[in-house]
Design brief:
This protein has helices at 35-44, 56-67, 79-89, 109-123, 147-174, 198-218, 239-243, 260-272, and strands at 47-51, 71-76, 99-103, 128-131, 180-185, 223-231, 245-246, 252-253, 281-285. By secondary structure, it is of the alpha/beta class. It has one domain (28-285): Rossmann fold (3-Layer(aba) Sandwich). Bound molecules: NADP nicotinamide-adenine-dinucleotide phosphate (NAP). Belongs to the short-chain dehydrogenases/reductases (SDR) family.
Length: 295
């Protein structure tokens, strides 16, 4: 995946800040209300962590959750991109949506620990993890893929997703009332590969294993886990689908894409279910993309 270009966004800088529980998480909430009012209002809402919230699907889901009255903690490596997501929430006044950017590299255990400690210290509980951050890696014929490139995809898509899921699981198991939901972002590549995508395909298949194990191990603790498998939402990652991408038959073709907001609406639906109900797997894809029949 070509990393998304950094988006601007310093609009939140003038807004009041809360004291930071960590050196990495001092950025402001968006609603410029008195601290007690903000924290009181935030406590009444459910709390979500969205990884990869500075672009694409993560940003769309963060905005949709906020519109559905969730408090949302935004994670990703680029602080400016997270700030831009927070800026897009706008001012909602006292009792309005609360959003907190926490710059985090999910491949680093210490930073993941800080992220979830920040959620606990600031909001007291965690109701949802949207385990979304991911990378496609450089497309390359299998025999030409470097071990370094293989490892960097595994590190984000599998190791990072595990670290976030484990931290969320621990928080949800420990809190009162117990429980919560983890939604993993898989892919149609969790089912069927594209050419030259072995690291992405292998890690997205592994995501299905994470989802199933989390579902099983979460049962005693009211922790639900589901997976959304997306096909061709228009984001930085799918730029090549819109300009022409290698097909299984050797041709390069432009593929249909869909709006990331349509994915976000599905995630919000999954998130809103009571913990007694779970969308275990959902596939949301551009209707006419060459998936059915490509394998
Ligand atoms: N778009 C699609 O059609 C599609 C299809 C199937 C699956 N997906 C999945 O959807 C997810 C989001 O992809 P997207 O399409 O929205 O592409 P994107 O805009 O490139 O988003 C990827 C996000 O992951 C974050 N990220 C990457 N490495 C990270 C790290 N080490 N630590 C923290 N965050 C990291 C990036 O933020 P920073 O660079 O700021 O860290 C970025 O916000 C991915 O898991 C992808 O596999 C997308």
């Amino acid at each position: 995946m070509a990393r998304a270009g950094q988006v601007g966004g310093t609009a939140t800088a003038a807004r009041p800040t809360l004291p930071s529980p960590s050196s990495r998480a001092g950025t402001p909430l968006t609603a410029p209300a008195p601290q007690e009012a903000r924290e009181g209002a935030a406590a009444a809402r459910k709390v979500a962590v969205v990884t990869g919230a500075g672009s694409g699907i993560g940003r769309a889901v963060a905005l949709a959750l906020i519109a559905a009255n969730w408090t949302v903690v935004l994670a990703g490596r680029r602080a400016a991109a997270l700030e831009e997501t927070a800026r897009q929430v706008g001012y909602a006044g006292i009792g309005g949506p609360a959003v907190l950017p926490v710059p985090t590299d999910i491949t680093r255990p210490d930073e993941v620990e800080t992220l979830f400690a920040t959620v606990r210290d600031r909001f007291g509980r965690l109701d949802l993890l949207f385990n979304n951050a991911g990378t496609f890696g450089p497309p390359a014929p299998l025999d030409e893929l470097s071990y370094e490139d293989w490892r960097s995809v595994v590190d984000v898509n599998l190791n990072g997703a595990f670290l976030c899921a484990q931290a969320a699981f621990r928080a949800m198991k420990a809190q009162e009332p117990q429980g919560g939901r983890i939604i993993n972002n898989g892919s149609v590549s969790a089912h069927t590969p594209r050419p030259h995508s072995i690291a992405y395909t292998a890690t997205k298949h592994a995501m299905t294993g994470l989802t199933k194990s989390l579902s099983l191990d979460g049962r005693p603790y009211r922790i639900a886990c589901g997976q959304i498998d997306i096909g061709n939402a228009a984001t930085e990652m799918t730029g090549r689908m819109q300009t022409g991408i290698l097909q299984a038959n050797g041709r390069t073709e432009v593929e249909p894409v869909m709006d990331a907001a349509d994915v976000a609406r599905t995630v919000v639906h999954m998130a809103a279910l009571p913990l007694e109900a779970n969308v275990q797997f959902a596939t949301v894809m551009a209707t006419n993309m060459p998936y059915i029949g490509r394998g």
